[in-house]
Amino acid sequence: MTKRGKKTTTAPKPVKLDVRICFAIGYYASEADAALAAAAGKARGDTYNGGYFDGMACGREKNWDYVDPVLGQLYAVTF
Fold first, then answer.
1. Could you report the per-residue pLDDT of 39-78, keeping only the tens digit for each?
2. Domain spans, the chain
């Protein structure tokens, strides 16, 4: 556990990151990596911090998936 009482988990590193005010979106090269990252976020208890979705659980977000011109198909996970 960390100092704030949250569990520490290991997850794949995103190949691309988009940071917002209330949450971040990690983009993964495979759907399997995205699923592992989403599970790690769920285990940590990640939630949106502020705004309309304050307190909503983070995780796999298929609506943010897209095809990057350089990296190809990317799969999104919020945290």
1. 999 999 999 998 888 999 999 999 999 999 999 999 999 9
2. 16-78
The pTM of this model reads: 0.84
77: left (phi over 0), alpha (psi -120 to 50) or beta: beta
Contact (CB, 8 A) for 65 and 23? no
Half-sphere exposure at residue 70, Cβ-oriented, CA atoms within 13 angstroms:
2
Q: Are 27 and 18 in contact (CB under 8 A)?
A: yes
Token pair recorded at residue 72 = 């190809």
Residues 6+ apart with CB under 8 A from 20: none
